[in-house]
Amino acid sequence: MSSHHIVRDDQEPALIIANGAACNPELLGQLLEWSPLVIVLDSAIERVIELGIKVDVLLGDFDRGFDPEIYKTTQYPIEIVHTPDQDKTDLEKAFDYLIDRKIPAVNVVWATGKRADHTITNITNIARYRDLLKIVILDDHSKVFLLPRKFEKWYTAKTPISLIPIGIVDGIYSTNLLYPLINDTLTIGYRTGSSNSVLQDGLVTITHTNGDLLLMECMD
């Protein structure tokens, strides 16, 4: 894994590396290709360093005897951000850090897998940042993001797509999906739009009136 060398003044989405299951090195390399600002949560720092990745920001509550000072030399220059607030996860605090820096978008890896509670929390918490930060969570199987009220994107036929509500989402309409939604309501735990797919090459449109709706582009 090659390290990045030049941060391009926040032109590209930042990259947060959390501490879930590692993704394919090829995916990580693609995200690092344009030298984004790289933020690593404290519990993942040793795994990241082993991959030869240059870290720009080390962020976390630094509990359990964690000493961030040792990385000031090996990762110089590096910004150390201590975030002791226990009412938020380290990933949420990383989002807050980006908002404070007025960085508009971020890709997140290593945020899924391992503990199920962490995976569910990491994915669903992006809803609260709807108007503050464009967040995309990626792993080897899915690309997950929160939909705006109207979403349009060109896809190839048979691309697997899942629509997952956070709570209740209503007034959902879609075009060019195998299983169309027409003024539908989806409710987590009762009815979701999992395992749909694109009907034919072309534009997919999804709109919804109320609620928070996640789209998952699935790779298998």
Keywords:
36% strand, kinase activity, 220 residues, 5 helices, alpha/beta, disordered N terminus
Can you give a write-up of this model?
There is one protein chain. With about 220 residues, the chain is an alpha/beta fold. Helix content is about 15%, strand content about 35%. The protein has 5 helices and 13 strands. It has helices at about 25-30, 45-50, 70-75, 90-100, 115-125; strands spanning about 15, 40, 55-60, 80, 105-110, 135-140, 140-145, 150-155, 160-175, 180-185, 195, 200-205, 210-220. Strands 1, 2, 3, 4, 5, 6, 7, 8, 9, 10, 11, 12 and 13 form a 13-stranded mixed beta sheet that branches. The longest helix is centred in the middle third of the chain and has 11 residues, at about 90-100. The radius of gyration is 18 Å and the shape is elongated. The two termini are about 25 Å apart.
Topology record:
Blueprint (H helix, E strand, L loop, with lengths): L13 E4 L7 H8 L5 E4 L3 H6 L6 E4 L10 H4 L4 E4 L7 H11 L4 E5 L6 H9 L9 E5 L3 E5 L3 E6 L4 E16 L6 E6 L5 E5 L4 E6 L2 E9 L2
Parallel strand pairs: 1-2, 1-5, 2-3, 3-4, 5-6
Antiparallel strand pairs: 6-7, 7-13, 8-12, 9-10, 9-11, 9-12, 9-13
